[in-house]
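User: Okay, second chain of the day. Same drill as before: sequence in, structure tokens out.
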Amino acid sequence: MLQQRLLGYGTVVLVILVIYYKLNQKPKVHHYWDRQPVSRNFSSLGKISQTRLPSNIISPFQTVNFNILNSKTEKLIKNFIDHHFLKGYQYSLPFLRWSMPNNNTDTIGLVTKARSTPGYQLVGTISSRMVTMVINGQTHDIGYVDYLAVHQDYRGHRLATALISKVVETYHQEIFLFKIEDKPLPFDVVCKFRYYVYPLTQEKQEQIKGVTNWTALTNQTLDLAYQYYQQKSSQFRYYQTYTREQFKKWFFPDNNVVSSFIMLEKGQIIGFTSFFSLKMKSGFLNQKLKNSRIAELLVFLSNDITQHLKQLLPQLFYQKIDYFVATNLGKNKVFIDRLPFIPGKRCYLQMYNYGTGRSYDPSEILVNIP
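Assistant: Same drill. Structure tokens below.
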């Protein structure tokens, strides 16, 4: 009896100490982010500042601009991204040409004098590509920040925030969107979402062989798909929109990177989907994916979500895909809950120089960024 009382008193004391610690804990200092126009506790709504802050690139580092279409630098960028960006992915040059800005200003490299050889060494990359988002009925041109990578030997020296500061200083947009994996940046999270993986094992591949009603997107059906996307996407509170030319550039099929399909019924479009494919060079989601091919969903819009997703699987089989990857953004959770998807990494959407006033559920958001 006495032992139980002592245990109870100990628990109460522990709770009191935890509460006291949290109430008296000093907020963590963030040397870069504490001075930036970012929203905290959803205290801001709309654009926060009209003033561009200077970058904090300091010697011995300096920045250079890259063009992924330049044959002299594309292999340098690819090799750096493969080794210092997301673990496990093996990026092809066609994929990088599709996903990175293809001009001389929107992909930035951070260089310093090489330690052991003459010349300079690439130690960091970042890119920003313009995307158009509709947020609660208001349209904004936003810089989507991607390929933020720092050389493994140079991490811990605030080079990531230095690269971000350079993009903020020089890019022609004033609002920026980040997709952060694992741990969010120290300001408001617009949406917390998750990746899921569907392993297309040999047994499942045998089961999903068959006829599919999905047909590849063509020039003749491009306008149908574009109109369908515009109609369906407008049902979300936060969604990505395109001009027709942007839609074609992003979704038109490329056998090396992107596959897009539509579904027709009596001449009417009832579904549109698109995904990109990559090879894996190492493990991912605790699965043995070495030298495997993954297909990652960009968008899935349909009048019958689960049934039409099942009919997409034969297309993945024909392309020799080993793992199908999707987020729970948009309406995807409908088929994720009904099919044997495995939960994967967590991700966070965050915005620089813009406050949304609240967080969004994944089902309210349609964002098609790799």
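The chain is about 25% helix and 30% strand.

User: Thanks, on to the next one.
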